[in-house]
Amino acid sequence: MANLIDGKAIAEQITNEVRAEVGELSKKGIIPGLAVVLVGENPASKVYVRNKQKACEKAGITSIKISYEATVSEKELLEKICELNNKKEVDGILVQLPLPKHIDENKIISAISPLKDVDGFHPENVGKLVLGQKTFLPCTPAGIQQLLIRKEIATAGKHVVVIGRSNIVGKPAAFLFLQKGIGGDATVTIVHSRTKNLAEITKQADILIAAIGVPNFVKAEMVKEEAVVIDVGINRVEIGENESKLVGDVDFENVSKKASFITPVPGGVGPMTIAMLLKNTTEAAKLRV
User: Fold this and answer.
1) Is 145 among the catalytic positions?
2) Of 80, 91, 96, 117, which residue is the catalytic one?
3) What is the mean pLDDT of the chain?
4) Catalytic one of 91, 116, 117, 119
5) Do residues 18 and 279 touch, judged by C-beta distance below 8 A?
6) Span 29-113: which CATH code?
7) Tens digit of pLDDT for each residue in 230-278?
8) What is the predicted pLDDT for the residue at 240?
9) Environment class of residue 73 by beta-carbon count within 10 Å: exposed (0-12), middle (13-18) or buried (19+)?
10) Which CATH superfamily is domain 139-270 in?
């Protein structure tokens, strides 16, 4: 059986480190502040925002929640972001995605100041990531990298295969593992829905990252013996009448018999995403000093 990578425990470790940094900043009169903008009543988004608020409280970060009806205009949302960009006490701005269809997500993300873009989605920060420059890293890929670093799983010279090409996980994860230095120096392949012979490529992975959004997509026959498997997926599936459960993109029961390390769902990558958000917000607050 694979060794379990406990994301919850590692996220707790990072949160404690952030809390110590927040304590040092508070001696200088700086309390990091994160503004979270929630549009509409998406149940999953509401849960994510609530979890982020709880994590902020634990780390000593001020959390400001701004809620809008799903009918809010793009203009009003842009005006609010402009206002938050100019608020000294707000170090990080996070707009919870997805947004309603009448709002251009790219326009909203681009309106956030790159210095307050703690999600790491602004085009300027994405460009810096690609170039290997210091910037705010997207939280989920950064969380995955920290899981591997803190479990002392080497990436240098390894073949990392990423399933999925989203702007939130797939693409930035690929660039992150390509960078020189600790947690990087890997050979990276991205596969996706249009990839031919996908399983043949995933079977070559020393480290397999599944971020495709399909429940139990990765089967044991798609995984090399002793591979490290990181499951980014969070999918709710029905298991009976009025009953459901969370599963990942990996067939955990069978793949865990073959892998050397594996992340569970829940309790793997999810807590790390929030921990890295706290880290980014604290780094943004340091820019005030």
Assistant:
1) no
2) 96
3) 96
4) 119
5) yes
6) 3.40.50.10860
7) 999 999 898 888 888 999 999 999 999 999 999 999 999 999 999 999 9
8) 80
9) exposed
10) NAD(P)-binding Rossmann-like Domain (3.40.50.720)
